[in-house]
């Protein structure tokens, strides 16, 4: 299979999300550099020192109380010719004045990865993903006693590696074949350490079909164990029938005590990018529009934004709760971050 497939179609959205995590990681590294972070252990300290040397730090002027996490793999996923092509294609698509093409090319050649990606995306989008990552990290950690975690549309999510998860947990990541291959090729060529002790399985599957269930079973999934089911950044890409089948299959394969977390984006909000464009000096100088998810309309499959009903039908009717991004930001102590697009519905069987 060819890595180049990642450049086109829905798989490239996994690169976009990874670039947001690179940005937050960079914010975190700034704290490390200015010695404002207390390390959990020596391994983390050594790693951060190594990482600082590898990627350097692009100084950001934001003084927000941002969600604190780092994703040490994001840099590697973005530092490939394929991801750089996605970056430049996206940047050119946002260029308002074609006469600035040469200047844009020069910028893309010279800027650090974090600097280049942050000229494209608004800070509101980046923080939305930051809050989302941290909220879901915490949800997974709170439930780490469960033996199985299934991540649908896992993309370049690296929870299975970077979170302190126990060896009793097995994680099944499901995505399209070329995305899984892209990720695994990079992971097999880098050495950034693995904090998680969980076992990770990668499954190639198109979630608009149902073969993922037999694939899961063939990799050791046991439907008698309570399972954590995570849908982050995926239901909006599936059509209504596929979503309905997906939830039905989850219901059929969930033992009592299983839990779900469904991330949705209010459809009306997808085209919105609320701030930052005027604040990013490179974007301003080059005259770049700010990317917004509404530009990916071709890839969206549904307006699925109210999972509570279907969760109840599937028997996930205990403790169903929907949080909006601003509520989560408050819980995480980042209440100055507002106007977030994402919502999260959790439930338990
Ligand atoms: C926006 S990314 C989110 C990735 C990851 N969950 C995260 O939050 O970092 C969407 C992911 O869904 C995957 N995806 C979209 N449609 C899919 C399908 N029909 N079957 C499997 N994966 C799909 C894409 O390949 C991509 O990796």
TrEMBL record:
Gene3D superfamilies in the record = Vaccinia Virus protein VP39
Does the record's keyword annotation contain Methyltransferase? yes
Pfam families, from UniProt? Answer: LCM
**Gene Ontology biological process terms, A to Z:** methylation
What Gene Ontology terms describe what this protein does at the molecular function level?
A: methyltransferase activity
Q: Which UniProt keywords apply?
A: Methyltransferase, Transferase
Give the family, as the similarity comment puts it: Belongs to the UPF0677 family.
Q: What is this protein called?
A: S-adenosyl-L-methionine-dependent methyltransferase
Q: Which organism is it from?
A: Tieghemostelium lacteum (Slime mold)
